[in-house]
C-alpha cells in the first residue's frame, strides 16, 4: 500500500512549507535574538514542524518535549492527558510552544495553563496550521501562524490519522473513504 494514494488533495506542498517555515524562523531570530528561548515540541504531531523550524533558527535556543493526548481518530474527545512533561526548569525562561495544528484550541489551552504555572518570563505559541473556524476558546492567540486552513481533516508533515500518514512530506486532505472503512 502507498499512503499517498489515500490523499484526496495536496493542500500545502513541500516547497511552500519550507518557504513559510523559513519566514517564521527569521521572525523568531529577530524577536528572540537575546532571549535564549526554550522551544517546546508538542509530541507527536509537531515533530516535523519543530525540526524544520529549529534548524532554520540561528540564535541560541533549547529543546523541550511535552506530550498530551486529546484526539482519537478524526473527532475531538475534548479531554487531554499529559503523558510527558518538560524536565528543565522553565521559571523565568522565554517559552515558545511549537504546535502542529490548532483546531478547537482546547488542548493548547490546557497545556498553556500548565506552562504558566511554571512561571516563565514569556510564553508564545507558533502553530504550523490554524483552523480558526473551529475554535472553542478565546484564550489561544498564536503569535506565529504558518497557514490558516479550512475545516478539513489533514494529515502529513507530522499530522496523523490513527497514527498513520505522519511521514508524508506535505500536508494533504485525507480521502473520506479512509474514515468510512474504520
Ligand atoms: P484542538 O484541541 O481541537 O485544538 O486539537 C489539537 C490537536 O488535535 C492537534 O495537535 C492535532 O493532534 C489534532 N488535530 C486537530 N485537527 C487535526 C487534523 O486536521 N488532522 C490531524 N490532527 C488534527
Helix/strand order, N-terminal first: EHEHEEEHEEEEH
Radius of gyration (CA) equals 16 Å
Distinct ligands, ions and cofactors found in the model:
inosinic acid
CATH topology: Rossmann fold
Task: Estimate the helix proportion, in percent.
Answer: 10-25%
Strand order of the largest sheet: 4-3-2-5-6-7
Summarize the main sheet: 6 strands, mixed
DSSP helical segment count: 4
End-to-end separation:
16 Å
User: Residue ranges: pLDDT <50 for 5 or more in a row?
Assistant: none
Strand-residue proportion: 25-35%
Question: Would you write up a description of this structure?
Answer:
This protein has about 180 residues and is α/β, with parallel strands linked by helices. The chain has a single domain (about 5-70, about 80-180), classed as Rossmann fold (3-Layer(aba) Sandwich), CATH 3.40.50.2020. Helices cover about 25% and strands about 35% of the residues. It is built from four helices and nine strands, in the order βαβαβββαββββα. The strands form two sheets. Strands 4-3-2-5-6-7 form a six-stranded mixed sheet, sandwiched between helices. Helix 2 (about 45-55) links the parallel strand 2 and strand 3 (about 60-70). Helix 1 crosses helix 2. The chain is globular, with a radius of gyration of 16 Å. The two termini are about 15 Å apart. The model has no long low-confidence stretch (mean pLDDT about 90). The structure holds inosinic acid.
